[in-house]
Specification:
By secondary structure, the chain is mainly alpha-helical. The protein has helices spanning about 1-25, 30-55. It contains 2 helices and no strands. α1 (about 1-25) packs antiparallel against α2 (about 30-55). The chain is elongated, with a radius of gyration of 13 Å.
């Protein structure tokens, strides 16, 4: 059951991580776009942690 709940988030995290790496390599790690994507990734990771904590 839990995996079914987190699967969409897992996919979103994977895609966002790949996007961050790609942009970071092209534009640099300190570029505004890379930082924004990193913050979005952080939010997704926080969301999945909340789900895990809720389902304990």
């Amino acid at each position: 059951m839990f995996k079914e709940q987190t699967y969409p988030l897992d996919l979103a995290i994977q895609k966002k991580r790949e996007e961050m790496i790609e942009v970071g390599l092209k534009k640099g790690l300190n570029h505004n776009e890379t930082v924004l994507i990193s913050q979005q990734l952080d939010q997704l990771l926080n969301d999945i942690q909340k789900l895990k904590h809720t389902n304990q």
